[in-house]
Specification:
Blueprint lengths: L2 H10 L4 E2 H11 L8 H13 L3 E9 L2 E8 L1 H30 L10
Antiparallel strand pairs: 1-3, 2-3
């Protein structure tokens, strides 16, 4: 799963949000590292809607503009849960291997003088 998709699903995991709130939430979750542009956001939301991972929770007109609020579907929650488990397993294996490498004797290279 691409990081922007993971971040969008994560941003919707605890509450429905409209587009601008999603942009802000993704930036907060990523520590400011990921800044979604409007076109990228709505392209991703359209794809996630098509996949059944998100749904339109509500639509309203604010200052003459339509505002859609998006929510995670049950399937979206299942996919996010599976991705979180996959990432946890990969992180645990990385930590295990790093720990093993730190305990292993270091090989000396080069020639003695």
């Amino acid at each position: 799963m691409q990081e922007p998709t993971l971040l969008l699903l994560t941003a919707l995991a605890d509450a429905p949000r409209h587009g601008y709130a999603l942009i802000q939430e993704v930036a907060a979750i990523s520590g400011g590292r990921v800044k979604l542009r409007t076109g990228t956001l709505y392209g991703a939301l359209d794809r996630l809607l098509g996949q059944g991972l998100v749904r339109v929770e509500s639509e309203e007109v604010v200052d003459g503009r339509a505002r859609r609020t998006y929510a995670l579907t049950d399937r979206g929650c299942e996919v996010l849960t599976a991705e979180a488990e996959r990432l946890r397993a990969v992180a645990a294996e990385a930590e295990r291997r790093l720990s093993a490498a730190a305990r292993a004797p270091k090989l000396r290279t080069g020639f003695a003088s």
